[in-house]
């Protein structure tokens, strides 16, 4: 079964600084990978996804993520963080060989942005 | 993009009563819907998977007689919390997949905004 690890529970960055949120997955083949963002009291919004092809994927709000098979990672990056980016970020993995199964989510990383 | 709605967004009910939460796909047909529960500052916990026209598949530890799921149409799934108790207070989120033509489309989950349930 697949699993997802987000090693950082909470990260604080200054506004305008760069950001990298880590995500490692466990799956026997190439998985489908996702990053979602959740603001307090809200549902999840899809930032970006990787299915195949170019390993650097661009998403909304200036986010990007890079799939590195050798490291089983799918880290999320943003070159310059805005105060509105403060939220909870979830990495998720889907198993292409397992049919229509639900995504498996990491425990999330809370991002705080300071002035 | 695909939109999923949930109703109500917030509900407060008395202990022992039942509460129904609706999840609707507004602009696509959802072959599969998922129900999640989220405790404060925690990740999403999958409760059940619901396919249109068939019985829901519940995750281990989730009481199917307490959390009744109905997926009667391709655009609507409901979660009914029966005989609710304070420990059922939580944030409930649904998601839906469209089961489109591409192999990856069934993995594109679209999430509703969530329902905050408070049982007093």
SSE layout and pairings?
The complex is a heterodimer of chains A (115) and B (120).
Chain A: E1 3-5, E2 10-14, E3 19-21, E4 24-26, E5 32-38, E6 44-50, E7 56-58, E8 64-68, E9 73-78, E10 87-94, E11 104-105, E12 109-114
Parallel strand pairs in A: 2-12
Antiparallel strand pairs in A: 1-4, 3-9, 5-6, 5-10, 7-8, 8-9, 10-11, 10-12
Chain B: E1 4-7, E2 10-13, E3 19-25, E4 32-38, E5 44-51, E6 57-58, E7 67-73, E8 76-81, E9 90-97, E10 110-111, E11 115-119
Parallel strand pairs in B: 2-11
Antiparallel strand pairs in B: 1-3, 3-8, 4-5, 4-9, 5-6, 7-8, 9-10, 9-11
Record keyword descriptors for this entry.
heterodimer; A: 115 residues; mainly beta; six-stranded mixed beta sheet; four-stranded antiparallel beta sheet; 12 strands; B: 120 residues; seven-stranded mixed beta sheet; 50% strand
Give a verbal description of the structure:
- The complex is a heterodimer of chains A (115) and B (120).
- Chain A is 0% helix and 50% strand.
- Chain A has 115 residues and is mainly β.
- Chain B is built from no helices and 11 strands.
- Chain B has strands at residues 4-7, 10-13, 19-25, 32-38, 44-51, 57-58, 67-73, 76-81, 90-97, 110-111, 115-119.
- In chain B, strand 7 (67-73) and strand 8 form a beta hairpin.
- Chain B starts with a strand and ends with a strand.
- The mean pLDDT of chain B is 89.
- Chains A and B meet through strand 5 and strand 6 of A and strand 5, strand 9 and strand 10 of B.
In summary, what is this structure?
Chain A is mainly β and 115 residues long. Chain A is 0% helix and 50% strand. In chain A, the strands form 3 sheets. In chain A, strands 2, 5, 6, 10, 11 and 12 form a 6-stranded mixed β-sheet that branches. Chain A has a 4-stranded antiparallel β-sheet with strand order 3-9-8-7, with no helix packed on it.
